[in-house]
Amino acid sequence: MYEHDVLVVGAGGAGLRAAIAAHEEGADVAMVTKLHPVRSHTGAAEGGINAALREGDSWESHAYDTMKGSDYLGDAPAIETLCKDAPDDVITLEHWGMPFSREEDGRVSQRPFGGLSFPRTTYAGAETGHHLLHTLYEQVVKRGITVYDEWYVMNVAVTDEPDPRDRTCHGVVAYDVMTGEVAGFKARNGVILATGGPGQAFDHTTNAVSCTGDGQAMAYRAGVPLEDMEFVQFHPTTLPSTGVLISEGVRGEGGILYNVEGERFMFEHGYANNDGELASRDVVSRAELTEVNEGRGIEDEYVHLDMRHLGEERIIDRLENILHLAEDFEGVDGLEQPMPVKPGQHYEMGGIETDENGETCISGLYAAGECACVSVHGANRLGGNALPELIVFGKRAGKHAAGTDLGEAKIVTGRTDDVEAGEVDSPVALGEAGISDAAVADGGAARLTDPDEVVEAAVDAERRRVERLMSKDDGIQHAEIRARVQKAMTKWVNVFRNEEGIKKALREIRKAREDYRDVYVDDPSRTFNTDLQMTIETRNVIDVAETIAVGALARDEFRGAHWRQEHQERKDERWLKHTLMAWNGGEPELWFRPVVLEGESKTYEPKIRSY
């Protein structure tokens, strides 16, 4: 068994920042990651980091933009924490050597982004995430922080009291991809999940193959609610053939969207009369698909994004990476031709329910980054707000897990006695109800309280799971099951949703869950067995996809990224509340908690959201 004060699961932006912060507080910290840190998906972030750095801007303005962008489903204490902390945390990155783009006078450059009232997106060309990862990883190496590289975390080791709020997390169980060893990692102080999003629940996504919702699924099955999972962001500019992201920075620099008739449709068709291409992402994605659905798309699939008018010098200086992506994946020269783009799954606004210090309702278990839901993004994330979330809440989670007092959290976590119970008209049973857990046992440590025994019991359960999977010599392979879930989610739980389609997706997810009982691992080796790893990941994809679809079915309104054909209005009198899903021993349970709109010095009043 490996033992440290703080364990960080995942080594993207949030995980690296959490590890640095915990180390700075004097903790013995280690990172357990299925990818080398600089291969983490944060490296695919292109656009930039929002922070109020310049005269004329303020954290209050940033907070208002974020709340408006969230369609008034963000929690004010989290949003204000993000916007107040972001400037200092960005300056810290600059002091650590982050190579931000700069103006001629030496100041870091800032560009306009969708939904912002001030050009506050600080960037490093069109490779901001790549440079962020390398800057943070350099600090991890400098500090001598231990990194268990290519160790895939399979489960968290948590006590098994009836009420999740009474449970304690004592560590994790991980699989060494190189050797096949399954081992326990004990955390004396806390475990921080920083595992990224669940993009692999969809088949057209900007997310890496590694983004399988592992942290969300593990926390969910351990007893932490998943919050607002129905709110999935579809980025308006992805390459049609691959889902590769084309940065919002292109539109921030002045890129224009055209339909097949050469119309600048964001203005000419009235989707966003003031901000045009720089409306929020949900607005632009719906506009593009409406153009395609009404016959004004190109090849009935996509629209054009044109940056030729910006000039070669400006494009090379600020957007050079975009030229390479368009050429490599679509054969298009962005200096001479417009680029084909269409919406693609990009970001999960919901996630593991945490407070503003990153802590969940289970003592000692934290989450930060895209896998978490604080909630700063509500129903729609503004471009440029993901990277500050990583550094702000990664830092706070690291500090708190190391024992630093950050003050009493204002956001409540876990199911309290006064929550509103929810119901959903699912066409199928949800969760593990009625299905043997022989192939998908969660492990755990029922009635154990000694930390060593809790971790050892979890390790034993995961070893048994591996042996069950490896001992079968026929059945269904995970890839077939995963592909069916991905196709169902992309077809029926996409930008445009309706009741019939969501129910079809739930039926497919149920069938996938039943088929998973017969899943087997074709690769018999015990070293570098990625087939085994992806089989375990697929179970996580199924669980997380189900929470997204259930939330989408339950929320019968149109808010932010969640569009319902039958419900074309925002219903503030009924739906100013978060959707929460609890695993509940394999029988998922739905409930709601009111949004916190009371900030430090003002209450945010919901208004009509127009751009």
In short:
By secondary structure, this protein is of the alpha/beta class. About 35% of the residues lie in helices and about 15% in strands.
CATH class category of the largest domain = Alpha Beta
Cα shape: globular
Distance between the termini: 54 Å
Number of domains: 3
CATH homologous superfamily (4th level) name of the largest domain: FAD/NAD(P)-binding domain
Key phrases:
Flavocytochrome C3, Chain A, domain 1, 611 residues, six-stranded mixed beta sheet, Methane Monooxygenase Hydroxylase, Chain G, domain 1, seven-stranded mixed beta sheet, alpha/beta, FAD/NAD(P)-binding domain, 22 strands
Could you walk me through the main structural features you see in this protein, from its secondary elements to its overall organization?
With 611 residues, this protein is an alpha/beta fold. The protein has three domains: 2-44 and 130-232 and 346-419, FAD/NAD(P)-binding domain (3-Layer(bba) Sandwich), CATH 3.50.50.60; 235-342, Alpha-Beta Complex (Flavocytochrome C3, Chain A, domain 1), CATH 3.90.700; 451-594, Fumarate reductase/succinate dehydrogenase flavoprotein-like, C-terminal domain (Methane Monooxygenase Hydroxylase, Chain G, domain 1). Helices cover 34% and strands 17% of the residues. The protein is built from 15 helices and 22 strands. It has helices at residues 13-24, 59-69, 76-95, 128-143, 214-222, 249-252, 265-268, 281-293, 312-330, 386-401, 451-471, 478-492, 499-516, 530-554, 572-575, and strands at residues 2-9, 29-33, 49-50, 110-111, 121-122, 146-149, 151-158, 169-176, 182-193, 226-227, 232-238, 256-258, 303-306, 339-348, 351-353, 365-367, 372-373, 420-421, 496-497, 563-564, 577-582, 589-594. The strands form five sheets. Strands 1, 2, 6, 7, 8, 9 and 16 form a seven-stranded mixed sheet that branches. The chain has a six-stranded mixed sheet with strand order 17-15-10-21-22-18, with helices on one face. Strands 11-14-13-12 form a four-stranded antiparallel sheet, with helices on one face. α2 packs across α3 (76-95). The longest helix is centred in the last third of the chain and has 25 residues, at 530-554. The radius of gyration is 23 Å and the shape is globular. The relative contact order is 0.17.
